[in-house]
Design goal:
The structure is a homohexamer of 208-residue chains. With 208 residues, chain A is of the alpha+beta class. Chain A has five helices and 16 strands.
């Protein structure tokens, strides 16, 4: 995290509208992706993300976009929007199933700037701890409320999952958790049959 | 079973080709479905089928066609064929997911007449005990080999399942079995989460 | 057909807007469905429809709505619209996969009134012969152009197919036709394997 | 509602475990379904439910189970559980996509008894107003917390939707709402094209 | 286009049967793909294709095969055939969802050689202008009628779409068009909800 | 094969648990994948696999994992297990649809060591000839029985198919075989229509 603070302090940040010119409600800054320090930041953030076993367990990661550092200064915000379904990427466009915000600045250092997700009838507002990561289906409507003081520093990234559908992903995650918690108490044959179901669902759901 | 023997002894049987005129390899007899005794036989057979918990557990029954008594006398047979996917029935056609043969005559009373199922690379031949029932996906290729002596008496029926796809049906059946065998040893919360997965799959798979 | 002409001549016709009040472009008449003569007309039309083998072969009929006689007098028309996906019906709503227009009046007796279907880039205009029937996926955009002289008399109905998706329905219809035309020349085993594929697709596609 | 109060006051209530004997955490009372007054209650509740346009708009109702009045006296509760995917019903089992609780007793007349739904990471607790109805996917884990004083009177029912998958149902509901709110401002052609998309999704999603 | 004319004039063309040896009705020439000038031609054609916004909007491009210049001299033709579903390509085989013909020679310079597509009941014949491109689902039956005079010069290529199913691709394209034409007149919230539906469909349909 | 014998004789083999540390029933040896001789062995085995037309015809190969030589000395075995659905691989994880065992040691040179597949109700035991390959859906439960004398030398590999679902893969394989055996006797038009169906299924089933 410290190295990320240093990077944030020294790197060039540009107008965030470059990556979504059609959204007039977007008003933030993002690290200049043409610089070497940008590459270092994506490496650091990516490694941190993939080290986390919980993340690997529920996301069923197929591809990850390079995380991008974003800075919201007072009055900056990002109005309601879903993220797009496909990101231009080499060698082929990448489907974005999960969007992720990694909180870098300590929440006590800025006011406002809540990540607000409009899932179901009630919006959920989140202001994560330093180092925390929040995930939501990319096409969910969400927004970043205006920062009123201090500076919100986060990184955002996108994940293509082996399982596109979030309902199926949740069911398999739940089944895997039950197996992890109860598997050692089961008769070997039942445990293997449960493994058969889990792996079969994993395979089957990667294309439907 | 005894009542079925009596019915077989007294009921009229007609040429089986009436129910599949296009298949020139079909050569057997079936109970005349215009008689009252036919209705009695279907009731008896249906009740026997639905009493069986194992059947209910793996078939996820939505609809059942009236079972039909069939008789194969020496030299009779039914050549290789799959069953059709939809049966004319009131008020709407019924999809046939599972075909079922209920063996009525004791296998020691006739020779030949094996039910032979062509699944995968090797055919499987079955000559069930009196009262046994065999199920297979309706569209599988199968045949009844020629009877060489005695008389093969069976009933056949067809099941529309809540889960059309046999792979999905098998996975849910396996998961239900593991839950039945191991559920009481689990923490309540894990058991409920497993129930959530099972019921969600059941619902989801009824239309895909 | 003659009896239908008599019915058309004697039955009461009411404003067609009763069955689609939201569409302000609808301007036609339909037979009063509260009368006995309405019931007779639906029976006649339904029997004619189901007698047609070609219809049964490509529609894979699960349910049929009672056909409704409609009359377009000069200046009447029905503007661009898709039909709804579900019709209120007993005991449960019926999905409408195919819409059908049965032409009753001879096309030489009226001008205008073409059924125009907007499929792909070019609209197709149809004015069927007396007794002809035209089918199209219900949710396709279509319209009836204004009648300029004479009277357009048709019946319309809706079919729920065992196979919801028109692409899959077409593929199975094509495969069934190839089997009908070439099956007798094939080795028996290949013919049975082709039957296995056809019936398996029929079953599989009834729920996906 | 008054008539329901009267029914609640005079009808016989029996142990709720009859309808889910496997769940040892269920402890409530339900109206005796062998009585005439039970039939009257289901009629009243069903009509109230179907009168509600909002309900019809988001549930895409195919079938509804007869609503069942339930009473929770002090200390009664219903522990965590999902509802089953299929209910035994005539003429065929009914899939339960949505579970519904209709609140009859005024929430000020009893303490405890919250309906608590475990969706995502945080449970949501609901104590509806007299006459309110709450819906949730049937296979979601939920519970009724113990009543601590007074009496919780509700009715529960189950809906088979034309669209099994809740994600798809939500998307179509959203699209229909946008069309209802913005359709009149659109060019006619765009409005019809939007209708084409909506009806096509409705049809397509009834089987996948 | 001029550079393509020069390439056509100087490059070596070989028998087209090399890329589909099983189709005895194929009789045309194609640019020798072992030459450097071949590479230049694919670059030029690919850039032209991807510059076209209309193409990007309806094709939802995931991968594109290198376009191949083909020449039909008098009497040459390509009989009825569908294109294959998968093309050998590095690093993995590529699914071909859309086939594309780019017309290079001016249609006034040759007779015959119509691209004829057998979609539905009536074949559609196309002779595109210089620079025009025509797209159709790859597995549609199509043919090139015999050239009777002059020389037909075209390029063909194949696209793997993010959305395999053409019906789904069409629905999303229509919805995107309606949004583009009407979005600016909508209330912001409705516009964002429509975006949510569009992006959700895009994501969902990339695997089903 | 001889070169593989030489490699087996000279290469280093390490404990097989490295590639599945969670399975305590695994007890075998595998070639050290950090050596150059390992790379040579994978090349030889891969080429042999891809040369086989039968394999290409039923597997619809999208990706293949590098084959891995495994050795079972007396008492070694691999208990019941399914293979995982996704293998870590560059540049993205690879789905494993088919598992493959290539038998290298002649079956007369060792006792025990049968590959036993638990498909349906009866396990199938296989001891392939030198050079034979056996395929099964990866998530099927299978095991290698203990070797009692001699040494079992095999290679294992994994295939990602263009068609994930084995039922669909089987249907297309059957249809392709019927077309190969009967196609030349068909009228050209029927043959092309059959091709249209086959290629359309191939394309459609790559994502559902």
């Amino acid at each position: 995290m410290r190295r990320l603070d240093q990077i944030a302090a020294t790197a060039t940040f540009v107008d965030g509208r470059v990556s979504n010119p059609h959204n007039t409600t977007k008003d933030n800054l993002q690290i200049d992706h043409t610089t070497d320090i940008y590459k270092e930041s994506t490496q650091l953030l990516l490694q941190a993300l993939l080290r986390n076993e919980e993340v690997r367990n529920f996301a069923f990661i197929q591809r990850v976009a390079p995380p991008l550092m974003c800075r919201y200064q007072p009055k900056m915000k990002y109005g309601k929007h879903p993220d797009v379904a496909f990101l231009p990427m080499q060698p082929t466009p990448m489907r974005s199933d999960l969007s992720c915000t990694i909180f870098i600045a300590d929440p006590s250092t800025y006011e406002g700037g809540e990540l607000t997700i409009h899932l179901g009838s009630k919006p959920v507002s989140i202001k994560g701890k330093r180092g925390a990561a929040v995930f939501y289906p990319s096409t969910t409507i969400h927004e970043v409320l205006p920062v009123t003081s201090g500076e919100r520093l986060v990184a955002i990234t996108f994940i293509e999952s082996q399982i596109c559908d979030e309902k199926k992903r949740d069911l398999l995650y739940t089944l895997n958790e039950v197996a992890a918690l109860e598997g050692l108490n089961m008769e070997w044959d039942n445990r293997v049959r449960l493994e058969h179901v889990r792996h079969s669902l994993h395979r089957m759901w990667s294309t439907s």
